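Worked problem 6 (solution included).
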Amino acid sequence: MKISKSEKLERTISKGKLHYIIWNGVIGWGVLTAITFSLLQHFIGDKSFTEIIWISLTTFPIGGILWGLVMWPIINRKYRKISSDGTK
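Solution. The predicted structure is:
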């Protein structure tokens, strides 16, 4: 059974802003980006993985908070648009 976009957005919104920011921003974007960046720096740059991972795990999750704060109103707007289109 395929879940519609509207149902996915409704489920996301029902979990709340803080949940979205933590899971999608901090963990989903921040931590994964930190690990990816650290691995790239290890293989391409001149820093060791352990040297760069600690810096990355503090800075990228902060960026993830900002990303979550920016995306939250966007997904709410998208949900309202989809919901209003469905009621016409």
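Discussion: The chain has one domain: 19-87.
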